[in-house]
Write a structure and sequence with these properties.
The chain has 12 helices and no strands. It is mainly alpha-helical and 367 residues long. Helix 4 runs antiparallel to helix 12 (335-366) and helix 6 (145-175) runs parallel beside helix 11 (313-328).
């Protein structure tokens, strides 16, 4: 029982760090364009993140039952596995936050989960659900496993963000050629309030749901192991039945509310280091550019959330900002900063997986 509550506690710590780490993703552009002050932007992001987190549960279901095959996890090891995965993700979040690098909390958690599962399964690769091909006649994004739900979207979503933002910005350049700059700036300053809210909402639909899945997975494993067999009636809400074959796990409402509120609390803290990188160092932004980047990124995020893909908000908003800059001219981008960001992307999955695997092995040695 203690380990289960430890999982929930550490999962909420991750959600909290995810909130302040990824606050910048939702508000960096609106701060960089000076449409809102940092304090105002954080309030907007907090409210919209909370609303988004309460909508749907496709991403949570992917994390809970779509990445790790529970039959390869030894009895009693589910909670230690999840704790190691979460600690690895939290460590990577804090490290990249400290250096102001907009890395992916989503991929840190997925990497940690896969590395920890590999560790507790004693090197059995089958503990990780690598690929579940889509049904015949169905598009690729209906497939499952790490390949279809994580790796493919990890590559495709940033590219989509770049392309969509590029074409939105190019269209706006053509449409606004004869409009006075002051009018453009004033009009898109107002429109960017809506695009920032859209971005915050989309961020909530994806990011807050990851730890919902972790908590649901921990409760399901505990229920299956009989940990909750003698619970008093008033604690019966902790029980989580294993889903039927081929079905995703249902996420209880109390888990959604708890994670949504924790994400909102983390969002309220803010992520000033990363805001400086995305909002100021990557490319000089005006309200029209912020509107284009946020609209493109939020659309990609919301689409991914609908299909249960835990994609990186960071990757998508960063490449959307790049797309906006490229529509103006390619030399407006600050390539040394971009290079550092790309290296952070490449390192996130393998480093977080390695940390989680090492934590599992250290825990085994101490037993």
């Amino acid at each position: 029982m203690f380990l289960v509550f430890t999982v929930i506690f550490v999962a909420l710590i991750f959600t909290y760090t995810n909130g302040f780490h990824d606050t910048a993703n939702a508000i960096a552009t609106v701060v960089g364009t000076k449409v809102l002050t940092p304090r105002q932007a954080i309030i907007l992001a907090t409210v919209t993140n909370l609303l988004g987190a309460m909508v749907g549960a496709a991403v949570a279901k992917t994390i809970a039952s779509g990445l790790v095959d529970s039959k390869f996890i030894p009895e009693g090891m589910a909670s230690p596995m999840l704790i190691c995965a979460l600690i690895a993700a939290i460590f990577w979040n804090l490290l990249t936050w400290y250096f102001g690098m907009p890395s992916s909390s989503s991929h840190a958690l997925v990497g940690g989960l896969c590395g920890a599962a590999f560790g507790v399964a004693h090197g059995n690769w089958h503990a990780i659900i690598w690929s579940q091909a889509p049904a015949i006649g169905k598009p690729w994004w209906t497939g499952g496993g790490v390949l279809y739900k994580v790796v493919a979207p990890m590559v495709i979503s940033p590219i989509l963000g770049f392309i969509i933002a590029f074409f939105i910005m190019a269209f706006l350049y053509l449409s606004l050629q004869k409009v006075r700059p002051h009018t453009v700036s004033k009009s898109f300053g107002i429109l960017q309030l809506f695009s920032s809210a859209y971005m915050g909402f989309s961020h909530g639909t994806n990011d807050a749901q990851k730890t919902m899945g972790i908590i649901a997975l921990a409760l399901m494993a505990a229920t299956k192991a009989g940990t909750f067999d003698h619970l008093p009636v008033w604690l019966g809400f902790l029980k989580a039945a294993e889903p039927l074959p081929g079905k995703a796990m249902d996420i209880a409402l109390w888990i959604k509310v708890l994670c949504a509120l924790t994400m909102a609390a983390g969002t309220a803290i803010g992520g000033w280091r990363i805001i400086r990188t995305l909002g100021h160092k990557l490319v000089k932004l005006q309200p029209v550019h912020g509107f284009a980047a946020e609209t493109a990124a939020a659309s990609v995020l919301l689409g991914a959330a609908l299909f249960g893909m835990p994609v990186s908000t960071t990757h998508v908003i960063t490449t959307s900002i790049m797309g906006v800059g490229a529509a103006r001219r390619f030399n407006s981008l600050k390539w040394p900063v971009i290079e550092r960001i790309v290296w952070a992307w490449i390192m996130t999955l393998p480093v977080s997986a390695a940390i989680a695997y090492a934590l599992v092995k250290v825990a085994e040695l101490r037993q």
